[in-house]
Write a structure and sequence with these properties.
With 289 residues, the protein is of the alpha+beta class. The chain has helices spanning 12-17, 22-28, 46-53, 65-71, 121-129, 134-146, 152-160, 168-175, 185-196, 240-255, 272-284, and strands spanning 9-11, 29-33, 36-39, 62-63, 82-86, 98-102, 110-113, 116-119, 203-209, 215-223, 228-232, 259-263. It has 3 domains: 9-41, no CATH class; 48-175, no CATH class; 185-284, VSR Endonuclease (Endonuclease, Chain A), CATH 3.40.960.
Length: 289
């Protein structure tokens, strides 16, 4: 007897109703929860797990919080349990591998993304404001904007309706700092730390021109007025070709009077080194607080 083709996600009942044998389910199915499976033909990603859970959740459910943020390309660690958001009801689903949160969501607070119902990017930002520190929230918001998911007008409208909601004060404080030009979480963290410590707000993605007006480089962050550039060096900068390019770029910047401050992963544990060195650099170029 030939195997019956299975969907990429399915329940035990669905498969057995179609005549699939127990043995085929055991060979093909990766359990997500009791009676719920992802086919071993695909990776068990957060997206795949959400598609599986959607088979069991009520029609008004939407995936939210860190789960939705992960699906929308925010720099978040994927949660071990899929997070679903439901409207108020007497009985909430309680299953291992599923975390249910209650929200009163409007029509504008839910979107469709890759076949899944998610809370809107603005709602995700608001929900995460109560769960993450300001620097990380800025990095999350930057990423959502960079990916084209979060629009300033949508965020402003959602926060206007958020009076009394836990985390709204933090969300409002960080909303005005978001910048879609930030290329990575480290750049967002550095920018937030400098602003929070009272230093001038750094420019983002600054073009660097030589004396003939030709663009020779760009800086992740910096201050054109004082010719100070801040660069975050990720692991890719250690590759031979990229390392050579960086040497040329930094040499060209220095030749035209730019002071380049370079930071790496070791500096992301806290703001002290970043803020202290940037302050000293600014003061050396004539800035005063």
């Amino acid at each position: 007897m030939e195997d019956i083709p299975l969907e990429l996600t399915y329940t035990w009942r669905e498969a057995r109703t179609r005549g699939v044998t127990r043995r085929q389910i055991q060979q093909d199915g990766l359990p997500v929860a009791h009676g719920l499976f992802i086919s071993r033909a695909i990776p068990a990603t957060v997206e795949a797990r959400c598609h599986a859970w959607a088979k069991l959740l009520p029609a008004d459910a939407a995936f939210g919080l860190e789960t939705a943020g992960t699906l929308l390309s925010a720099p978040l660690e994927a949660p071990s349990a899929v997070q679903a958001v439901l409207g108020p009801r007497r009985v909430l689903p309680q299953r291992a591998g599923l975390a249910v949160h209650v929200r009163q969501l409007g029509t504008d607070d839910v979107i469709s993304h890759r076949g899944l119902r998610l809370t809107s990017p603005a709602q995700v930002f608001l929900d995460l404001a109560a769960r993450h520190p300001e620097a990380e929230l800025v990095a999350i918001g930057d990423a959502l904007m960079r990916a084209g998911h979060l629009l300033p007008a949508d965020l402003e409208e959602r926060l206007l309706r958020a009076a009394g909601i836990r985390g709204v004060a933090r969300a409002r404080a960080c909303a005005g700092l978001l910048d879609p030009r930030a290329a990575s979480r480290p750049e967002s963290l550095l920018r937030y730390w400098l602003i929070a410590d009272g230093l001038p707000a750094p420019e983002v993605q600054i073009p660097i021109f030589d004396r003939w007006g030709r663009k020779v480089a760009h800086a992740d962050l910096g201050y054109s007025e004082w010719k100070i550039a801040l660069e975050y060096e990720g692991r890719q900068h250690a590759e031979r070709v990229q390392f050579g390019r960086d040497v040329d770029r930094h040499s060209l910047m220095a030749a035209d009077g730019w002071l380049v401050l370079r930071f790496a992963g070791r500096h992301l544990s806290g703001p002290t080194a970043v803020v202290h060195r940037t302050r000293r650099a600014l003061m050396s170029r004539g800035w005063s607080s």
